[in-house]
Amino acid sequence: MTHQPQTRLERGTQALAxxxxxxxxxxxxxxxxxxxxxxxLLLEFPFGDIYTRPGLDLRAREVATIAALAAMGxxxxxxxxxxxAGLNVGLTRDEIVEILMQMAVYAGFPAALNGLFAxxxxxxxxxxx
Amino acid sequence: MTHQPQTRLERGTQALAxxxxxxxxxxxxxxxxxxxxxxxLLLEFPFGDIYTRPGLDLRAREVATIAALAAMGxxxxxxxxxxxAGLNVGLTRDEIVEILMQMAVYAGFPAALNGLFAxxxxxxxxxxx
Amino acid sequence: MTHQPQTRLERGTQALAxxxxxxxxxxxxxxxxxxxxxxxLLLEFPFGDIYTRPGLDLRAREVATIAALAAMGxxxxxxxxxxxAGLNVGLTRDEIVEILMQMAVYAGFPAALNGLFAxxxxxxxxxxx
Amino acid sequence: MTHQPQTRLERGTQALAxxxxxxxxxxxxxxxxxxxxxxxLLLEFPFGDIYTRPGLDLRAREVATIAALAAMGxxxxxxxxxxxAGLNVGLTRDEIVEILMQMAVYAGFPAALNGLFAxxxxxxxxxxx
Amino acid sequence: MTHQPQTRLERGTQALAxxxxxxxxxxxxxxxxxxxxxxxLLLEFPFGDIYTRPGLDLRAREVATIAALAAMGxxxxxxxxxxxAGLNVGLTRDEIVEILMQMAVYAGFPAALNGLFAxxxxxxxxxxx
Amino acid sequence: MTHQPQTRLERGTQALAxxxxxxxxxxxxxxxxxxxxxxxLLLEFPFGDIYTRPGLDLRAREVATIAALAAMGxxxxxxxxxxxAGLNVGLTRDEIVEILMQMAVYAGFPAALNGLFAxxxxxxxxxxx
Lengths: 129, 129, 129, 129, 129, 129
Fold this sequence. Notes:
The structure is a homohexamer.
Chain A (H helix, E strand, L loop, with lengths): L7 H12 L1 H10 L5 H16 L6 H15 L3 H13 L4 H15 L1 H20 L1
Helix pairs in contact in A: 1-2, 1-3, 4-5, 4-6, 5-7, 6-7
């Protein structure tokens, strides 16, 4: 007989593993010696509170995140994590490329280009794995 | 016997009408006396070239646009047009609210709040129409 | 005999009242009909989790928030709330003006000017109250 | 027998009058009661130090400023001042429209649109004057 | 007997070669395996539609682009391409340095510094070539 | 018998040495061959004019700068210089970590993460020195 995860931290830890996979766990690990409390907050709020909400499926959530990070242009490492997360939750490479191309309209061609180059790296890592 | 639209301008004009509706047409009209060529480019590139591409449905395209514009925080009028466009292509109000809430994670709480207040205005206009 | 607040929501509600005062409560109220869950998350994470952490006093926290919001330039309503919050937790008007002037160095003169004009409005509202 | 202005403040005051005209003087005046020292710094550094440097003519300087402010999207009031300044130093309305249209490529269509709407306002004020 | 280029793609390909030179062609090549359609759109819209418009000479267009990219601060690779493009269309190194210095006023000293360091790299590559 | 520094340049040079230390001097040196006048302006305006103003102590000034640079997300090298500067003027490592964590609320989790990773680098360099 299994139980639902009960704390935000447990729920967030499970969601992070499902969505971001190893890349997400690497981020959490990298915070251990500088800001361990921030690792907890990152699991609890974005993953425990937001991604686990009903009302929007994980596929649409990753479309939103990839678009936002590419448009902002200030979060290249996190964009790569979420391009991988998009693949994890069922987006195809072609769909991710379409999202990034569309950002040319809203955030300019450099934002789209830098997003596409991030995707190129993530896809190559997958192929090499 | 009907034909497919043949020029990018025709294709874009049709896509703008379908996606943005009256709000999009108002933007085009407002350019007439200041930059009429830009109205043409706006129909041709974003709508004729990008939104009509296969490979990502309009619903996912509007998830991406709403997320990007809310995260950037510099395009409040365009965010309102695309919240309305999201409703036009089948997103529910609750889904739009979820996308905007999620932006708190990537662009901060002010970006999410300002996005939610934009949605509140658009939803109220729909209710009043 | 009093108790410590026990939930994040209670702790956040208390912190919001102390720091942002009426302006913060107005933000929470304005979310009631569009995204009530986001009001809860706003009380819990920024106020319940972050502002109540030891290790940085509220005065320094508001210096950081005023600087960040002025530098970003995309959150004018939230900047006004936090200029008022700065006064609530003990910053003087002159100190707030100094923070905003300094933003000219890091985010440019327009960011500093728009921050100073926000401060002018908040100070005038205080004088009129 | 006339003299060259000798202090940075005098040089900046003269440059502000030449470039930004009344709109610039209004900005200086609006700082009088909130941050009079910042008015001095604004005259001294941007106008006394930068705009008066040889090596780039005022026309090219205003092309750069209009492009930057439109691309940033966080400085609409200052963009309007510099669209007017562009006209003051010899840019034509058509050239300003071209600069703003070009920003669609680098900062996205919303940045270009919001810049064009700012130009529309400034041009209408000139026509009404 | 030669002809004018007739398609947007031909016109854009020619403009890209003239303005961005080898650096631009490298960007196009780098898209071949990830988003070949985006390479086409990049040639057609920015270069075929915008840079070839009459009404603003290429020199002024590059002043605008260099200023915008430096001010945004999110497009360092593209800024380097356009610093080189500025040299290609007749801007001097001193003029480019002036544009970048001026960005300190509008986008802050870090934006100007990061732009100047990009210019330093591009100038050194030219000297080494 | 010593004198107070009398020019803005002298005052700025002294302030830069006190606040940014070697990292600041390296920035000045790196400008020597590309834009030596900008090195002078950087000493004169931010350091000679702003940081030496009374009305806000250096500790609060560095809280503001660290927060702004982390929130903007476009100035990673300058953020590292100012994390070191914060330590120089008396902020503790824990206080700097708190400021950066707080930026998750206003600029999103990626801004906070990238700020924390910058701090990790600066702290490691101090430990190795």
